[in-house]
Amino acid sequence: MPTSTENSHARRHQTEAFPTASRTSPNPASKNGDSSPPRDLFDTPDEDESAGTAHAPAPVVRHASSAAPTVRCPVLSDGAQMWRLARDSGELDVNTPYAYALLARDFADTCRVATIDDEPVGFVIGYRRPESAATLFVWQIAVDPAFRGRNIAGLLLDGLVRDLPDVTTVETTVTESNASSRRLFGKFADRHGADLAESPLFAADDFPDSHDAEPLLTISGLGR
Ligand SMILES: CC(C)(COP(=O)(O)OP(=O)(O)OC[C@H]1O[C@@H](n2cnc3c(N)ncnc32)[C@H](O)[C@@H]1OP(=O)(O)O)[C@@H](O)C(=O)NCCC(=O)NCCS
């Protein structure tokens, strides 16, 4: 799935197809054992934290709750938070807020949000391929950085395919350098006893901007 080039360039050294990824950033949840009350979930940064980014949208700083995540279909009003999660992901090409609202409304069947204390902390957006309804294309998946490393993305993918029993194949594209995402889809394939194959799809020069190639991952033979 499209990811921002600046970040993926920074991580380009990780070129093994399915590396045993080390954690590229600490997990505040496990590191701090933080059990902050829910009201701290969406603290906005103070002036010092925002210094130097006066013209950039300030990322929302969240403190991880230890509450268990819930996975559900999105509703239109989730679109704004899905957009924020994409914006703050550090990896994804950010679509318009309109696009996330549209997906939440019209493609809720093939999208999911993960909530903690009723607040979205992760999302997956996808669609059935028009020429092959049994193939689910996963367009974007993201988890709030404060909640990464807790298998929330895995829960999103598992919840999605559990609710779509006729889907036998999952496709996505992942840049070579996105080790976390490759681990995610590798583990997902393993959990479902599926085959995972990689093939070229989008070359860098298929994109009008500076963008890494996006090889296709095909996960077929999904078991439930
Ligand atoms: C990819 C992503 C959705 C995974 O979400 P997640 O809920 O953390 O998934 P998991 O807990 O299963 O962890 C997957 C891998 O991420 C890495 N990881 C673990 N903790 C992490 C952390 N705190 N920060 C960053 N990466 C971490 C590890 O490689 C982990 O694999 P492992 O558990 O086998 O070591 C998340 O890292 C993310 O939102 N990334 C930015 C957006 C993105 O790249 N999306 C995919 C585009 S193709």
TrEMBL record:
InterPro entries registered for this protein in UniProt: Acyl_CoA_acyltransferase, Ectoine_EctA, GNAT_dom
Cross-referenced Pfam families: Acetyltransf_1
EC primary class: transferase
Coiled-coil intervals, chain numbering: none
Associated pathway: Amine and polyamine biosynthesis; ectoine biosynthesis; L-ectoine from L-aspartate 4-semialdehyde: step 2/3
Biased composition annotated in UniProt, kind: Polar residues: 21-35
Residue stretches making up the N-acetyltransferase domain: 69-214
Highest taxon above the source species: Bacteria
Keywords associated with the record: Acyltransferase, Transferase
Keyword Acyltransferase: yes
Sequence similarity: Belongs to the acetyltransferase family. EctA subfamily.
Protein's name according to its UniProt entry: L-2,4-diaminobutyric acid acetyltransferase
Species for this entry: Occultella glacieicola
Lineage: Bacteria, Bacillati, Actinomycetota, Actinomycetes, Micrococcales
Gene name of the encoded protein: ectA
